[in-house]
């Protein structure tokens, strides 16, 4: 009986240590927002800031507002805007990676309904090392972003 109790305490301590370690290494996600869309629009863009104490990679995302969520980049090639899907986004240790209009972003593809200003929805980000991080995304215009800067 004493051996079983010790094993239980050791297992509980290991679980607590793992949870504490994950909390210390989990990426911090801030200022998650998405642009509003109109009826019939099949896709929308999402933006946020990620800071991780350890190097990691954002490898996938999902949200109930769309059939698919993809990681994308946008670049200008002369006068042509080119978007392409990325397999992952590197998150260097201690640096902030900003997903923003005109650069890295998430695409909500196959929207179930329009993204209305003021609405919020959950987004699950999957990191290679840290696992899943859930955030709430607020639908707003880019002009509303300074109101979120109070976190910095």
Please write out the topology.
Layout (H helix, E strand, L loop, with lengths): L1 H24 L2 E7 L8 E9 L4 E7 L3 E12 L2 E6 L3 E3 L4 E4 L5 E7 L8 E8 L3 E9 L13
Parallel strand pairs: 1-10
Antiparallel strand pairs: 1-2, 2-7, 2-8, 3-6, 3-9, 4-5, 4-8, 9-10
Describe this structure as you would to a colleague:
It is a single chain. With 152 residues, the chain is α+β, with helices and mostly antiparallel strands. The protein has 1 helix and 10 strands, in the order αββββββββββ. The protein has one helix spanning 2-25, and strands at residues 28-34, 43-51, 56-62, 66-77, 80-85, 89-91, 96-99, 105-111, 120-127, 131-139. Strands 1, 2, 3, 4, 5, 6, 7, 8, 9 and 10 form a 10-stranded mixed sheet that branches. A hairpin with a 3-residue loop joins strand 9 (120-127) and strand 10. The longest helix has 24 residues, at 2-25. The protein starts with a helix and ends in a 13-residue tail after the last strand. The model is unreliable at 16-23 (pLDDT under 50).
């Amino acid at each position: 009986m004493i051996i079983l109790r010790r094993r239980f305490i050791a297992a509980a301590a290991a679980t607590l240590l793992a949870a504490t370690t994950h909390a210390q290494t989990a990426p911090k996600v801030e200022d998650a927002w998405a642009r509003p869309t109109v009826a019939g629009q099949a896709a929308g863009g999402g933006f946020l800031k990620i800071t991780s104490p350890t190097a990691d990679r954002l490898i996938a995302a999902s949200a109930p507002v769309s059939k698919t969520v993809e990681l994308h980049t946008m670049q200008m090639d002369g006068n042509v805007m080119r978007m392409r899907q990325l397999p992952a986004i590197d998150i260097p240790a201690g640096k902030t990676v900003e997903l923003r209009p005109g650069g890295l972003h998430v695409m909500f593809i196959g929207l179930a309904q329009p993204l209305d200003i003021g609405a919020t929805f959950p987004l699950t980000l999957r990191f290679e090392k840290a696992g899943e991080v859930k955030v709430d995304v607020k639908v707003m215009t880019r002009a509303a972003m300074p109101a979120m800067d109070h976190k910095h």
